[in-house]
Here is the input.
Amino acid sequence: MSRTDDAVSILRDLVAFPTVSSDPNRDLIAYAATRLEDLGARVRVMEAEGGAKANLFATIGPEGDGGIVLSGHTDVVPADPADWASDPFALREEDGLLYARGACDMKGFIACALACAPLYAEGRLSRPLHFAFTHDEEVGCLGAQDLVEILKSDGLRPAAAIIGEPTMMRIVEGHKGCCEYTTTFHGIEGHGSAPERGVSATEYAARFMMRLLELREDLKGRAPASSRFDPPHSTVQVGRIDGGVARNVIARLANVDWELRPINASDKDHAVRTMRDYCNDVLLPAMRAVHAEAGIETVTVGDVEGLEPVDDNEAREIASALTGDNGAGTVPFGTEAGLFQSIGCSAVVCGPGSIDQAHKPDEFVSTEQMAACVDMLERLDGRLR
Here is the structure.
């Protein structure tokens, strides 16, 4: 059996674990842990609160810093069987395509990494090789956030990370962050005939949204001339609003769901500070001048670090040497790569399959893409000897 055939066989096992983000992933983590432990890898299973979810961090090769990380998330988005031509959690192979939920996003990469693990375990590696398989990427990169904090607290400093999200095996060195917020306005109810006697949560929510739109224009002017993103600037948008109970009742409660997609950390800091100061210095004093119990609360729903393109990027150099691709691009979707970058680890995104197939019925990855990924990871073994 070829190593690509082995990867397909492992993928068949992986997709049979229905690891939708709302459900446990422990069975898949146990499967991967057993395969790696049998090869002599040093395996650590990091349980999330409650015990239903876990990350896996495993190492082959010497102890210490300077290692290379192969990273993938184990969770998938939901799949309604009625929308699929076959069982979404059973691999179907047809005309060189491998259909299943998570086939490309991103169990295909995990399968390739596990298929190549015996190769890495055969001899002495010159530097550590880490496998990082996480939970809950699809709902805010929750597992990866925990993982990088543990690496920081343990003082372990990997040098480079390849995150195997589907890029058609092209090298990606940059993507925007994705920060999601809900801002809630607590007003004071009253009769609509005397609006000045109450604090209308919906009216203050509207003022907040107008400031967001002003911020959006401000962010356009902050785009660096060299930006490679499309659009080239950080963006803000309001996705959902709700509030009030009737036309003739001053609204007591209103919610604004909004998101920020920053191209760099300074834009994120600027946007968050701008909206916080507007609430604290302008809106809250006006609300509390009417009633002291009025308030504004912003909750962070998701905070995914962006991956900033940088000149010095060992991960990009490694991926280029392994794939023969001297270019590197940017993408609009988010990944866990920025979290690794945030702890001083160089990072790129490069994996089998197309993002166009992700989150859709009849998701697939091709055997050709799986073979290309296996080839890249086999070449990595030579680089580590």
Remarks:
- The mean pLDDT is 96.
- The radius of gyration is 24 Å.
